[in-house]
Amino acid sequence: MPDPWPRDIKVHRAERALEIVFDDGESFSLPAELLRVESPSAEVQGHGPGEKRLVPGKRMVGIAQIQPVGNYAIRIVFDDGHDTGLYTWAYLHKLGRDQQALWRAYLDGMAQAGLTRD
What is the CATH number of the domain that holds 44? Predict the structure, then answer.
């Protein structure tokens, strides 16, 4: 089965969220903070297993713009200057599908490290 394909993508600046509707019928509202702290960039994910970094202080991060990358992804430019992650359709779908578990893991990791979202 092919990866879900986006039918509609909207940035909601006031809500600091990216809304994405897929052709499989699923739709997600992804907070900019979650997108930023789960960026697929090497800066966040590292270069191998176990290298993922916690990114504190992103509660108020916003999306400055999105840029298409070929026909398979978007680059999200955040208002904190981060712009190196390429968000494929499959990755965005996974973030939406796993949003609650990812958010819980992020908050738990921040608490364990003594870091804050502010």
Answer: 3.30.2020.30
